[in-house]
Amino acid sequence: MNNQLKQLVLDVNRKFNEEHLECVVKPSVPILFFGDLSAYEKSEKKIITVGLNPSSAEFPRTDPFLRFPDCKKLGENLSFDSAAMSEYIESLSNYFKVAPYSRWFDSSFEVILNGMNASYYANKGVESTSKTNEKNLTFDLRYTALHTDICSPLATDPTWSKLAESDQQALATWGYETWGRLIKILEPDIVLISVAWSHLVHESTKDIFGDEWKAIYSVTNTNADTMKATTHKVLHSSISLQNSKRTHFAFGVCNMKPFGNFNHAAKFEIGKTIQKVAS
Description:
Layout: H1 3-18, H2 37-42, E1 47-51, H3 82-93, H4 95-98, H5 102-105, H6 109-115, E2 118-119, E3 127-129, E4 136-138, E5 143-144, E6 146-149, H7 165-186, E7 190-193, H8 206-209, E8 214-222, E9 229-242, E10 245-251, H9 264-278
Parallel strand pairs: 1-6, 1-7, 2-5, 7-10
Antiparallel strand pairs: 3-4, 8-9, 9-10
Helix pairs in contact: 1-7, 6-9
């Protein structure tokens, strides 16, 4: 673990211990990222996905640390020595190996990742049924992706869209900064983001994404009742976050779930398209 990540973990957990908003789920821990950090770092192509903030479902009331069992013994007021720091990172890294909230991840970002030969699940082949030949296909998923959240690493109840504006502002004030520091540490090649557009043009984040967005994929859906056609697009931008490395961003509107305006087949094609554009 590099020193920048260690310092970010310490800063985030200090904020967590100081945070007394009723909307923040307790008991819980901050989720700086979801997924196998070591496998991500070894991936030839580094890909991260981006949502708003963790769901309360990450810490079920009946068993709050079901998905992060190694964090249970750390306690609610986190204080890290070197051993505890390692346990925390390991718990986040094991998320997709233990008890992930797969109902949310697998039907949204995971499908797009598969189109890019990537997955949250390290060394896992995903079987899918082709609509054209009805045969099971196993995809080559050589890259391991991580999930992150742009507004806050803290789980809330209710969900972000239903939070009071004052709570959103209190969390996002340091949440945007945290995420910006995180992606500079992770140095992704590709970032898939599906949130409200306002988060990409916010004063705290706009320099990360740049302002030269172009459509790279679109589908047009027609409402059967009104016969009104609506076109949904995936936008692309690229920018050098640091040094000379260029990071590619792909944005799609969130509708209930990330890239929710696209069906399964379209999401897979989106992944293939992004891979081509970013190559």
